[in-house]
Each structure stands twice: as structure tokens, then as C-alpha cells.
Design brief:
Elements lengths: L7 H16 L3 H5 L3 E8 L10 E6 L2 E7 L5 E7 L2 E8 L6 E7 L4 E2 L3 E2 L19 E4 L2 E5 L11 H5 L5 E4 L2 E4 L2 E2 L2 E4 L2 E2 L5 H7 L5 E9 L2 H6 L7 E8 L6 E11 L4 E11 L2 E10 L59 E15 L3 E24 L7 E25 L4 E26 L2 E28 L6 E10 L2 E15 L2 E29 L4 E25 L4 E4 L5 E20 L3 E20 L3 E21 L2 E12 L3 H4 L3 E2 L5 E4 L7 E13 L5 E12 L2 E6 L7 H4 L7 E7 L3 E14 L4 E18 L2 E18 L5 E16 L2 E18 L3 E13 L8 E13 L5 E8 L7 E6 L3 E7 L5 E13 L22
Parallel strand pairs: 1-7, 1-8, 14-17, 36-40, 39-42
Antiparallel strand pairs: 1-4, 2-3, 2-5, 5-6, 9-10, 10-16, 11-12, 12-13, 14-15, 16-17, 18-19, 18-51, 19-20, 20-21, 21-22, 22-23, 22-50, 23-24, 24-25, 25-26, 25-27, 26-28, 27-28, 28-29, 29-30, 29-31, 31-32, 32-33, 33-34, 34-37, 35-36, 37-38, 38-41, 39-40, 41-42, 42-43, 43-44, 44-45, 45-46, 46-47, ...
Length: 965
């Protein structure tokens, strides 16, 4: 398959063309003046006629609908010039059709008099079909009744049918972005874990699904977007079904001692909501988030050995935010891939309630203990130069046990109608043990250069405590507000590691052997806080200004002691000064700015900010040497947020934001990491901060035909990008004078390189097919990245292109039949140095559930993954087939007994490809394969219809943006 390599300059015309297409979807509506049509209805006696249905048509399509008010008046707004006609109808009266030619001025029609019909009316059955969804500002709303699922389906099965929503390896994406939070009726549910939330709720209680970017607590109050948003799904429950008890209990046992047991129980009584969830299994059902992976939260140990329990950052990027006191790891939600064989025990409870009219709170606790055994291998092909053809292979065997406790809470207290307080504490306790054995080999031009066997036995214990406090005050003058917040984070961690390795190096046809036996202890402390103030002042009803100030302080400190074990039997050891280090990184940031806001009738929302930032970073080494580096930064950081809603069905959102990113302590600490003796790494205290510029454009459109279109363009540019400088042949860095590093051994040092670029695009279109009662969705995405790299004395740039398409056909037939068919090919190209590469992956998924002959159930799930142009041993096609057949039991079919088989074809494998600036890596690990299981499930459904409803039962997403009385 030919590979055409795009450069950043060559895609600029594509960006401009796509932008023109996006903005020209409805050019008249975006540029023309918005007009109105109004009028009134009279009866046969020329009296006002309320309640009459009035529809505005254009080209046989209903554009808007209205009912005459008590005075018989109706109004249609947000119109453009054109030809329309009105259809006025009321039972017992003759329909009236009025043609309208709308020019450049608002139109007031003469009163319309309806006449009583002389025809005898036949029985009429009116069926109203709800649209799939709608757009409200930057929120996509979907009617759950427009998507049919099985009676016993959970919320996550319903969510998968929503337009713009995809799910891959446990990660939920909406509009091309990871979903970080799920709310239920506007309230947090199980902290910030989307999987727990969606699996705990039955689909039948859901009325609407809302997808939007939730603002920070402070921005929700002021109405000014500060850029700190998270992709959020809000589940709105049905009135009458959101009070009662509901849940699911299940148990199963199969061959080879496979088992699972668990369930969830929910008690909803108005504002009081209690949810319990528990599980115990050895079939790789984990359902935990990134907080469960110790060694990532507050990780500052550059000696951390390689493991298979989390995704490590690539290319020198630190996934933490620039706000060092406000972050606890690389994202609030990331589901670990189900590699290896896992045994999991977990329990969780969520409680929320409202006390009077002042206090609203929610608390959740989650416990998880997972034991995982992983056997993996990888092949890493480095991009070639004129003199270098390097390959690296690695096999790993690891066993790890991870235990954690998570406690989250949110309390909102209204002091009075002008003042409120929000408090969000969070505590995580973690313990991890991991035994890892790896065999590694490097070849140059197909000749072995070095090899090693390494063993690392790591034990870690950590705490993560954070607190967020926000005070909000509204003045008597509407729009004048002030808010103050304080956020603190404390994350100590202790690591104890026993490291042993045996390595051989081939230099000039001579082999050198080296043995390492060491014990390491690392005490790491992370502490930080930030505080900010925001003041808003209205100029008039449309314009306002704002003033803001933020101070941020962060302290990362690590004390690493490495001992060489001289006599293992007696425990005699000596301190290795070259591999021991006491290091501290301290940062302080001041940011102040001025903002301008414009808001008009929910159509226009514009926020412009100009921020000036001063940052000071001090990196200090206390042992074995004393060294200090101080850096000061001055940055101008503008931002722009624009939302334009030309009609109730369309929304355009534009965002631009500049930010900074300070290097992590693991990138700064000047100590050698020898956990893999043939691939070493060391930090760089002289690193500078990176400056990011990020821009996004999003457009949403729902039509009267119930179709939904969504488009997104994104661009990111990073100055002073932090890349890993690889030294393979060159030995000109001073660090080689300090450590005895054999020829051919790779050393990685983070350094500031040139500018990196990334361009992202995503479009989605969904439309119902009424003849077969299905919805069909099309989506496409394209990602282009250009990244600088450093290899020995060579500076280069690597280019990557990822193009993917998707087609999904989902049933909307009945609760007795439910299917979801997906077809998703992707084509990827990469170019770096003197090497070009391309590969193709095709994912196909079929999910089919059928209830037949009254109470019999058939469930089929088929996944296939076709890989082309991967490494030889990874270029495999995988076909997964899961089957289950069962029968519904008891009254209302609440129970089900079934016999099922997982991976009937016994082909399950985990094959991944990743590309960095320097190499293409293919990896494979063991996974759970074929087993049979007999299972029983019971659904709890006890709805107390007629009881009090939740005060926040039907929140609009706008309620989660602004604080109201």
C-alpha cells in the first residue's frame, strides 16, 4: 500500500478547506440578520384563540413549531430571509395555510381567523416521533426513548448507541475526547469514575443524555470560561422512576475454576440517594481508574522499574498539568487495559442528599484489590540512519498486587441568597507490590550488541490527599460577583526496590559481562497549593469585564538511597554514591489578567482574556553533590472562548488558550536509572518549561429529520517541546565521564527541542432509517503530528498521520431485539529520519441480543481485528466470539439463568502498536482465553411512582455552568 507523507505545510490548505466547509454549512444563517415572524389567531367570533398549533414550514420541512398563548399570539425567532409558509390547525376547525416571503425586516402578520369545519371527523390517532437529539448552546441532548435496548440493559449499553460516543478497551469517548465524569441529575456519582456510574444504573430509568464540557466550579459561578473543562455526560432520570430501589445481583462459575459474583443496589428517595457496588472475579473484570495504579500518582522516582500496570508517558511529555498543586496524576480517568490474567475484589458506596435548602452533599468510598499476572513481549524497530539499524526486543513476566482505598466528597452550602461555599476533599491510600523479570536484547545491523536479564521487586505505599475550597459572593447589582478558591495537594510515597541484573556487552568482537545486585529506597514528597480570585463587573446587560489573580506553589522532593549488596547471605552492603541522590524542585507562579465578556440572548457568548504570568523554578541537589539552578519565566497567555447559536438546532464553539507546563521531578532529577542496564535514563535539571497553544472549533447541528451532525477541528503547538535525547553511538555528553557506560548501551536524557505540532479533526453524522427502525452513524477522524527528536548529534523531525473511519448501525426496533454493528478501519503512516512506515488495522464489532419464544435469551458478541504491515510475529488477525443462551425467570422476568462461552474460537490476544519519535513498537501480552460459565442474574426493580421527585430531576446543562438562587 503506497504511503504519501504529509508535511505540516502541505496540510495547511486542507485545514483552510475544512474550515471553509464547516463555516459554510449554513452561511446565510451565520452572517445574516436574525429575523422574527409574529401574529395572532382569532376564532369564528373574532376573539383570541389560545392553544392553536402553528407550524412554520420551508421546502416541506417543519422549521419551528409554536402554540398560541393565552392572547392567541405566536412568535418564531432566529430566522433568515427566505420563502416560508404557515400551517395553522386545531381540532374541529379548517386548516389554514399562509405563504410568507420574509425579507430583511421582522414581519407582523395580520390576525388569522379560523373557521369551524363542516366535515364529520373520523377517529384520529396522533403519533409524535421524538427527535434523536437536539443542541442547546454547546450541549448535545439525546432522548433515551429514541434508542431501544433490552429491558435489563445498563446505562453503558445505552450510552454506546449515542451519536458521537464510542467505547474502546473500557475508555468512553464523546465527540472524539475521553469522558472524564458522569453525573446523575447534575450530581456526582461514584466520585469521578464513569465506568462505575454507567454500570450501576439501569437504562430504563434514563430520560435524557446530555454531553457537554463542564466548567470548573469557579467558572460555573461567574459564567466565564477559564479553560479548565472536562468532557462530561449527565444522565437525567425519568420522573416517577427515580424514586425506589433498583439494581442487579449476579453470580457465575465455570471450568478451570473461573468465577464471578457481584452486583449493585441503588436506593433513590427524592434527593437522598444511596448506591452500593461490589464484585469478586478472576476473569479480568477490573473497572478501576488511574487512581488504582500506584507509581503514577505523585510519581517522582526516576528509578522506578518498568511494569505492565499502567501506561507510561512517551517522548518526554509530562502528563501533569502546569498547575502543580492541583493535579494528582495523568488524568482523572483512565481504564487499564485488560492485559494479563487478573483477580479482582472491589466494593464501593455512594451517598448523596440535600439537607433543607442550604446543604447539598455527596460522598463516595471505593475499595479495590487486584492481583495480575502478565507475560508480555515487545519488538522495537528504531528509525534508520545511514549508519544505524537498531532493533530492541524484550520479554517480561510480572506479578503484581495493588490495593487502594478512595474517598471523595463534595459539599455545597448556601449561607444566604448571596453567599455560598463549595468544599471537595479527596483521599487515596494505596499499596502496591510488583515482581518483574525481563530479558532484553539490542541488535545493530542484525548483530547482537548487548543483552540483559533484570529482576525488580518493588513495594510501594502512598497517600494522596487533596482539598478544594471555593467561596462565592453575589452583590446586589446583577452580574457583579467575586469568588475565592483554595486548592491543596499532599502526596507522599515510599518505594523499596530490590534490583538484580546480568548483562553482556559485545564490543569489537569481545564480550564483557556485568552483574548488578542492589537495594534501593526512595522517599518522595509532593506538596502544593494554589489560590485564585475572580471579580466580575457588568457594564450593561450585554457586556461585562473581569479581573483575576492566581498564585500557585509546588514542592517536589525525593531522597533516593542505593546500596550495592556485597554479601547477600550476610546482608552486607555499601552506599552507592553515584546512584544516590537528594533532590528538590520548587516552583511559584503568579498570574493576573483582565477579561471581557459578551452575552446576548443565549445566541452569542464571547469571553476574551489576557493573562500575564511570572514563574520562578528552583531545582536544588543536596547529595551527593550540591548544586542549584534557578529559572524565571515571563509569559503572555491569552485565551478566547466563543459560542454562537444561530438557532435552536445549531451551535458553533471556538476556543483558543495558551498555557505553560513545568517539567516533572522525574525529568529533572539528575540520577541514573539502571533498572534496564542496556537502556539507561537520567534526568536533566536544566530543563525549561514548555509553552502550549491550543485551538479548537466545534460545530453541532440537528435537523427536523432527526439527523445529527458534529464536526471538530483542533490544533496544538508546543514550544520548547521536551524530547528524550537518545545517545547510542555518541559519547559526547558529560554524563558519560561520570558513569561507566558500555558502548552500544542507550542513554536517554530529556532536553528541550524545537516546536511540535498536532492537528486533529473529527466529524460525525447520525440519521434514523425509519423503514428498518435503526439509526446509522458515520464518523471520520484525522490526526497529524510533527514532533522533534534528538539522536546522538542528529536533530530531526518525525511525522505521523492517522486516518480512521467508522460506520455503526444500531437497532431501534424493540426491547426484545437489540444489536449494534460497527465497522472501523484505520490507516497510519509514519516517517522519521530515513525511514517510512505504514500499517492498516480493521476493527469490526457485532453485538446482538434477542429475546425469543417468550422468555428465551440469545446473546452474541463478535469482534475481529485485522492487522496488516505490523512486525512479522504481530501481523495476526484476531477473531473473538462470545456466546450465551439463557431463559428469563420469575415475575416480570427479573431473573435470568444462562450458559455462556468466552472466546469460543480461543484466539484472544492483546496486540498493540505505538509510535514515538524514534521507533515503532509492537507488543503482545497474555490474555484470558476460552472458558465456559453458568451464571444467574437477578434484576431489582421497585419504583415508588408518585413519591416526591428530586429537586434537580431535570437539570439543563446550563445549570452546571452558573450558580443560581
Amino acid at each position: 500500500m503506497p504511503c504519501y507523507q504529509l508535511t505540516f505545510k502541505s496540510i495547511l490548505p486542507l485545514i483552510l478547506l475544512f474550515s471553509c466547509i464547516l463555516f459554510s454549512i449554513s452561511p446565510n444563517e451565520l452572517n445574516a440578520q436574525m429575523l422574527t415572524i409574529s401574529g395572532s389567531i382569532l376564532d369564528e367570533n373574532s376573539k383570541t384563540f389560545p392553544g392553536v398549533q402553528v407550524d412554520l414550514h420551508q421546502s416541506n420541512v417543519i422549521m419551528q413549531s409554536d402554540r398560541a398563548d393565552q392572547e392567541g399570539k405566536f412568535t418564531f425567532t432566529n430566522l433568515i430571509s427566505g420563502e416560508y409558509f404557515l400551517v395553522i390547525q386545531f381540532l374541529g376547525y379548517e386548516n389554514d395555510t399562509i405563504p410568507i416571503s420574509l425579507k430583511n425586516t421582522n414581519l407582523i402578520l395580520n390576525p388569522v381567523s379560523l373557521r369551524i369545519t363542516n366535515k364529520n371527523l373520523k377517529e384520529v390517532v396522533i403519533r409524535e416521533k421524538k427527535p434523536i437529539g437536539s443542541v442547546a448552546n454547546d450541549t448535545l441532548k439525546f432522548n433515551a426513548s429514541s434508542f431501544k435496548v433490552m429491558k435489563d440493559a445498563s446505562a453503558d449499553e445505552l450510552i454506546e448507541k449515542m451519536p458521537t460516543v464510542t467505547k474502546d478497551q473500557g475508555t468512553i469517548k464523546a465527540q472524539g475526547e475521553d469522558v472524564k465524569q458522569v453525573l446523575v441529575d447534575g450530581k456526582p456519582f461514584f466520585g469521578n469514575d464513569p465506568n462505575l456510574s454507567l454500570k450501576s444504573l439501569p437504562a430504563e430509568i434514563i430520560d435524557k443524555i446530555q454531553i457537554f464540557d463542564q466548567l470548573s466550579e469557579q467558572s460555573q459561578f461567574t459564567g466565564i470560561n477559564d479553560g479548565n473543562t472536562v468532557k462530561t455526560i449527565n444522565i437525567v432520570t425519568k420522573s416517577g422512576l427515580n424514586n425506589g430501589q433498583f439494581g442487579k445481583l449476579y453470580a457465575g462459575y465455570g471450568n478451570n475454576d473461573k468465577y464471578q459474583a457481584g452486583g449493585n443496589f441503588n436506593y433513590f428517595d427524592g434527593d437522598r440517594r444511596i448506591s452500593l457496588i461490589g464484585m469478586s472475579n478472576n476473569i479480568n473484570i477490573q473497572n478501576f481508574s488511574i487512581d488504582d495504579i500506584l507509581g503514577v500518582i505523585g510519581s517522582g522516582n526516576s528509578q522506578r522499574p518498568r511494569n505492565n500496570f499502567g501506561n507510561q508517558p512517551r517522548g518526554g511529555n509530562d502528563p501533569r498539568r502546569d498547575n502543580r498543586g492541583n493535579s494528582s496524576g495523568p488524568g482523572d480517568f483512565l481504564v487499564s487495559q485488560n492485559n494479563g490474567i487478573s483477580k479482582t475484589h472491589a466494593f464501593g458506596i455512594n451517598f448523596s442528599d440535600k439537607v433543607g435548602s442550604k446543604l447539598d452533599y455527596s460522598v463516595s468510598y471505593f475499595f479495590n484489590r487486584t492481583n495480575t499476572q502478565v507475560t508480555s513481549e515487545l519488538s522495537r524497530q528504531y528509525f534508520q540512519t545511514d549508519t544505524l539499524n537498531q532493533n530492541y526486543t524484550e520479554t517480561n513476566n510480572s506479578t503484581g498486587t495493588n490495593t487502594n482505598h478512595r474517598l471523595n466528597a463534595r459539599l455545597e452550602y448556601k449561607l444566604d441568597s448571596f453567599n455560598s461555599i463549595v468544599f471537595r476533599p479527596r483521599l487515596t491510600l494505596q499499596s502496591n507490590s510488583n515482581n518483574n523479570n525481563s530479558d532484553n536484547k539490542t541488535t545493530f545491523n542484525l548483530v547482537t550488541a548487548n543483552s540483559s536479564n533484570s529482576q525488580n521487586n518493588l513495594k510501594s505505599d502512598g497517600i494522596n490527599l487533596s482539598n478544594y475550597l471555593l467561596f462565592r459572593h453575589k452583590f446586589k447589582k446583577f452580574g457583579r460577583t467575586i469568588s475565592l478558591d483554595l486548592n491543596s495537594n499532599y502526596a507522599p510515597k515510599d518505594d523499596d526496590n530490590r534490583h538484580s541484573s546480568f548483562a553482556s556487552y559485545v564490543v569489537s568482537n569481545a564480550t564483557t559481562l556485568d552483574t548488578i545486585l542492589q537495594s534501593q529506597s526512595n522517599s518522595y514528597h509532593k506538596w502544593g497549593y494554589n489560590t485564585s480570585m475572580e471579580y466580575t463587573e457588568p457594564i450593561n446587560s450585554l457586556h461585562s469585564i473581569s479581573l483575576n489573580y492566581r498564585y500557585n506553589y509546588g514542592l517536589d522532593k525525593t531522597e533516593l538511597n542505593t546500596h550495592d549488596i556485597i554479601n547477600e547471605s550476610t546482608g552486607t552492603d555499601t552506599l552507592n554514591l553515584s546512584l544516590s541522590n537528594n533532590f528538590q524542585s520548587r516552583s511559584a507562579t503568579h498570574q493576573t489578567g483582565l477579561g471581557y465578556q459578551f452575552n446576548k440572548e443565549q445566541r452569542w457568548n464571547v469571553s476574551i482574556r489576557t493573562n500575564w504570568q511570572y514563574a520562578k523554578v528552583e531545582n536544588q541537589e543536596y547529595f551527593p553533590l550540591t548544586n542549584s539552578i534557578e529559572k524565571k519565566y515571563y509569559n503572555f497567555l491569552p485565551s478566547l472562548f466563543l459560542r454562537y447559536s444561530p438557532s435552536k438546532t445549531k451551535s458553533l464553539f471556538i476556543q483558543y488558550r495558551a498555557s505553560t507546563q513545568i517539567p516533572s521531578i522525574s525529568q529533572l532529577q539528575n540520577i541514573l536509572n539502571n533498572s534496564n542496564p542496556i537502556q539507561l535514563s537520567i534526568g536533566n535539571p536544566a530543563l525549561k518549561q514548555s509553552v502550549n497553544q491550543n485551538a479548537n472549533i466545534r460545530y453541532s447541528n440537528t435537523s427536523p429529520a432527526a439527523s445529527i451532525f458534529f464536526g471538530m477541528l483542533g490544533f496544538t503547538m508546543t514550544n520548547d517541546y521536551i524530547a528524550n535525547h537518545l545517545y547510542i553511538n555518541s559519547r559526547n555528553n558529560p554524563v558519560f565521564n561520570l558513569y561507566h557506560i558500555a558502548d552500544g548501551v542507550q542513554l536517554s536524557i530529556p532536553e528541550n527541542a524545537q516546536t511540535s505540532y498536532q492537528f486533529r479533526s473529527f466529524i460525525s453524522y447520525t440519521i434514523p432509517i425509519t423503514k428498518i427502525k435503526c439509526n446509522i452513524s458515520f464518523d471520520a477522524s484525522y490526526v497529524y503530528s510533527e514532533t522533534p527528536g534528538l539522536l546522538d548529534t542528529l536533530q530531526f523531525r518525525s511525522f505521523q498521520n492517522n486516518t480512521s473511519f467508522g460506520i455503526a448501525l444500531t437497532s431501534n426496533i424493540s426491547q426484545a431485539i437489540d444489536f449494534n454493528i460497527q465497522f472501523r478501519p484505520s490507516y497510519n503512516t509514519a516517517k522519521s529520519i530515513d525511514t517510512k512506515s505504514n500499517y492498516f488495522i480493521l476493527d469490526q464489532r457485532v453485538k446482538f441480543n434477542w429475546q425469543f419464544i417468550s422468555k428465551n435469551i440469545l446473546r452474541i458478541e463478535f469482534n475481529s481485528k485485522i492487522n496488516q504491515d505490523l512486525s512479522r510475529q504481530y501481523n495476526q488477525n484476531i477473531y473473538l466470539l462470545n456466546l450465551a443462551i439463557g431463559r428469563k425467570l420469575f415475575k416480570n422476568e427479573r431473573g435470568e439463568i444462562a450458559i455462556g462461552v468466552n472466546d469460543l474460537l480461543n484466539q484472544n490476544q492483546s496486540i498493540q502498536r505505538s509510535i514515538s519519535e524514534y521507533y515503532i513498537e509492537d507488543s503482545k501480552s497474555n490474555t484470558l482465553q476460552r472458558f465456559f460459565m453458568l451464571s444467574f442474574t437477578y434484576n431489582i426493580r421497585n419504583y415508588n411512582s408518585g413519591k416526591k421527585t428530586t429537586s434537580n430531576n431535570n437539570p439543563d446543562a446550563e445549570h452546571m455552568r452558573r450558580w443560581r438562587d
